[in-house]
Amino acid sequence: MSPDLNARMPFVDDDVFVVTGAGEKQLKDSETSASRLELELLVLVNGTSTVAQVRAHAARASGEEVHSALRSLVEKKMIALAPDTTAFGGLGPGDFLSTSTFYASSAATAKSRAGASKEDEKEANEGAGYLQSQGYYVRIARRPEVERKPGAGGRFSVVIVEDEAQLSKLLRAFFSMEGFDTRTATNRAEILDALRKPPAPDLILLDVVLPDADGFEILARLRQHPAFKDVAIIMLTAKTTREAVQKGLSGGADGYITKPFDMDVLMKAVHSVFGMTQR
């Protein structure tokens, strides 16, 4: 593989890319300038998968769109050709980004787990254990081209979909103090009820693992509904695999934050998806 990509665009199918420091910054700074497809590719690029494999996993985009986005990422210096790399098979359980940094707030983690059920504890422990062993986390928030304004009443409204009772209570209190109109939901029936109540939500914080629903399925249905297709949605979850992050982004999420997280990071992400100036 020749390192001079500009001399032979488009890419060769067996080229392998790695994410640079600038690319990782887009995944972990709570605000990104990358497009949705560029973010998906940053998640899929792992130093072992070939261009052909990355293209196959970016199923919602055409081959031409994938190559165009890869070129853009190269030009922005967010990815680089991996030197002397032997490509492995398709993405699997071991194909996750490994970094030397583990981000977590012990205070927030302690608060979020207090009073949690055994199932909640299991999910949290699995998520934290995976993060500690693999070091993979993201805090993605895409800034819109135009700043979002609050709906009726002049206050932003948020629906918090979270089945861990203590964390749900903490999030509701936090957003209430930030001036939001807040509603919470833990299951499918409560989600429907919260979405039907006025005012319409400006923001939905969406967990993935719910008692009787899958957060990715809820995301897909929201994006298909004319009333909610443009609402800001941030996935807030312990699902930390590349496949999960890519599924959330390709499904239309504006942000993806893995647990455990810090409230300040979450609020920065909210400001970003609203297009607001950071305070």
Rounded to the nearest angstrom, the distance between the terminal CA atoms is: 46 Å
Structural class: alpha/beta
Assign an overall shape. elongated
CATH architecture assignment of the largest domain: 3-Layer(aba) Sandwich
Give the number of domains: 2
Number of helices: 11
Using only CA atoms, what is the Rg?
Answer: 19 Å
Strand content: 5-15%
- Strands of the widest sheet, in order across it, are 3-8-7-6-4-5
Describe this structure in words.
By secondary structure, this protein is α/β, with parallel strands linked by helices. The protein folds into two domains: 5-81, no CATH class; 106-274, Response regulator (Rossmann fold), CATH 3.40.50. The chain has eleven helices and eight strands. The chain has helices at residues 21-28, 36-44, 51-57, 63-75, 106-113, 118-134, 165-177, 188-196, 215-224, 242-250, 263-274; strands at residues 17-19, 79-81, 139-141, 157-161, 181-185, 203-206, 232-237, 255-258. The strands form two sheets. Strands 3-8-7-6-4-5 form a six-stranded mixed beta sheet, with helices on both faces. Helix 10 links the parallel strand 7 (232-237) and strand 8 (255-258). Helix 2 crosses helix 4 (63-75) and helix 2 (36-44) runs antiparallel to helix 10 (242-250).
